[in-house]
Amino acid sequence: MTDETTNGLSRREFVQGTASGVLLAVGPGAVLAASNVNKDKDKKAVLAQIPQMHAANVKRLQDWIALPSIAAENRNYPQGPQYMADLARSAGFVDVRLIPTSGKPGVFGRLDAGAATTVAIYFMYDVKQFVPEEWSSPPLEGRLVPKAELGTVCMGRGAVNQKGPQNSFLSALMAFKAAGKKLPVNLVLVAEGEEEIGSPHFGEVVADPEAFAQLKKCIAVLLPDASQESDGSIEVDLGAKGVVELELVSSGEKWGRGPAKDVHSSLEAQVDSPSWHLVQALNTLVEKDGHTPAVEGFFERAKPLSEAQKKMVLTYAATVPEDVMKKELGVQRWVHDLSWPDSLLRLYSQPTINIEGLVGGYTGPGGKTVLPHRAVAKIDMRLVPDMTAADTLAKVKAHLAKQGFGDIEVNMSGGYDPTQTDPDSRAVQAILATYRRLGYSPQVLPRSPGSWPGYRFTSAPLSLPAVGFGLGHGFGAHAPDEFYLVDSTNSKVQGLDGAAASFVECLYALA
To answer: Which of 84, 366, 396, 435 is the most exposed place for a label (fewest CB within 10 A)?
Structure first.
C-alpha cells in the first residue's frame, strides 16, 4: 500500500519521464563524493565502507526477497518476522524481539549510540500476495537484470515495496559497524507484517509498553524510501491519505431473498438475484457521475487544502507536463473534464470510494447458466484529514441501511486514518536540506494519494512528524516485474550504494 499502483505505475513513477524540478547531472558516485569536502572524518570513514560492501548488500536484498512474508496468505509466519528480527540484530539493534499481536507479529529493536537525538524507523516486512493466473513463476529470485537507461536492477516481489529501500538503510547501518563508528543518532525500530492488508494490528505494536516508551523519546519517524523518479527528480510527501479496505457481501441467506445456493439462470424470472442486489447497493455509493461519493456525511470531516498546500500542488502542475502523464496512465481526459491543475488539486484533496474488484458466480471460459447465491465487492476508500477510518465505516453502514440495503454485509479487513506532518518540523527540514546538499531540488506536496499507517505516529499520544526519505529508484510495486536499482548507469539516479550513502547523510542531518 506504501506505493499505490495504477496499471503497474507506482506513485513514484507518477512523474516518470518529466522535467520535474531542477535536475543536476549527479552521477551514482556523487553522494559519496559529496563527503570529500566534509571535515567530519567519521562520516567519511563510514561512507568509504559502502562500495566495499556492495556485493554483500545486494545479496542480502536477494535473500530477503527469496523469503516472502504474505499476510493475506498466512505465508512464512513465523519465519518472516524472525528473519526481520535477525536483519535488525545484524545491523546493530539490540533488545530485538517479536511483539505478539492478535494478528501477525511486529518486530521491535533499539540502537543506543549515546546520542542526544533519537529517531524512529518504520519497516514493513510483508509483501503483496501472489495471483496465480498473473504469476505462473513467483518472482522470488531477486534476479539481477539489465534495465535500459538505468543500469542493473534487482527484480522480485518486494524489491521496491519496501525491501530495497529498507535494505539500503540497513546497509548504511552496517557501514557504521564496519567503520567502527557510532551513529550520530539513537534509533528505535518498529516493523510490521500486515501493511499489505491494511495494518489491522499495527496499533498493538506501537502500544507495546517498551516500544511506546522508546518511541516517546523520538523526534520523528523515518520511512526508508526510494524517492527518485527515473529522471532523478524527488518528491517529498508531507503525509498520506488514510484507507479503509472492506468487502460488501450480498447473499441470499442474509437477504432473505434469492437462492441459498447457486441455481440455474432460467430461474431469474422467478427468483431474486443477490448479484443485482449488490450492483444496486453499489450504485447508491456514488453520484450519477459514477465517481463522487454519495454517502451521507462522507465529506463533513474532509479538511480542504490550505492556500500553502494548494500552492505546492500548482507548482507541481506547472512543472510536470500533462500530456506525459496522460500517456503514462493511458487516459484521454480527467474526471469531469477538469484541467490538469484542477485534476491534481482533486487528487490531493478529495476522499474516494473505489471498487477494487467484483467477485461472484462463474468467471471461467465461455458461459455457465447460473444464478449465483452470493456476490462480493472489494472496496477501498481513501481518506483525507480530518476523516477517520472508524467514522467513515460507520457512515457507509448507515447509508446502506437507510437506502434499503441493511442486509449487505460490510466486512472491514483493514485500514487506518490519514497522516499529516508539519513542513516546518525539524525532520522535514533536515530531509530537504540533505537532498539539496546532495545536489537535488525536491518538490514538496501536501500528501501522497497512497497510504501507509503513519497516523499511528503523527496522531496523539505520540504526535511525531513522520516522513519518507531515501535516494534510489524502483518501479512496479505489486507487479511481476517489480525492481529496485542496484547499479546505476544513469547520471541522475542513485543505485544501492548512493541510496545507502544518502541514509548516512540523513542520519547526520537529523542529529
So the answer is: 366
pLDDT at 299 over 90: yes
pTM to 2 decimal places: 0.87
DSSP 479: S
Bridging pattern class, strands 466-469 and 221-224 = parallel
3-state secondary structure of 428: helix
Give the helix/strand (H/E) hosting 502.
helix 496-510
Q: Where do the H-state alpha helices sit in 202-321? A: 202-207, 209-215, 252-255, 274-283, 307-319
Beta-carbon contacts of 158 under 8 Å, excluding residues fewer than 6 positions away, are 64, 65, 68, 127, 128, 164, 482
Name 185's Cβ contacts closer than 8 Å, sequence gap at least 6.
113, 115, 117, 118, 119, 507, 510, 511
Strand partners of residue 263: 371
Q: Return the pLDDT at 21.
A: 33
Tell me which amino acid residue 313 is: V
CA atoms of 376 and 249, how far apart (whole Å):
5
Look-up: residue for cell 512496479? 476
| Residue whose C-alpha cell reads 562500495 in the numeric block | 51
10 Å Cβ neighbour count for 291? Answer: 15
Q: How far is residue 301 CA from its own chain's centroid?
A: 24
- Burial of 373-385, coded b for 16+ CB within 10 Å and e otherwise, reads bbbbbebbbbbbb
Cell numbers standing for residue 203 = 496499533
Find the largest Cα–Cα distance for the chain.
84
Average pLDDT over the chain reads 91
| Residues 361-381 pLDDT 10s | 998 899 999 999 999 999 999
Is residue 129 within 8 Å of residue 193, measured between CB atoms? Answer: no
Helix (H, G, I), strand (E, B) or coil at 495: coil
Q: Are 84 and 123 in contact (CB under 8 A)?
A: yes
- If one counts every other C-beta atom within 10 angstroms of the C-beta of residue 148, the result is 6
pLDDT for residue 271? 98
β-bridge pairing 186-192 and 118-124: parallel
Q: Is 222 helix (H, G, I), strand (E, B) or coil?
A: strand
pLDDT band, residue 502 (cuts 50/70/90): very high
Alpha helices (H) in 34-185, listed in sequence order: 41-52, 54-65, 79-90, 164-179
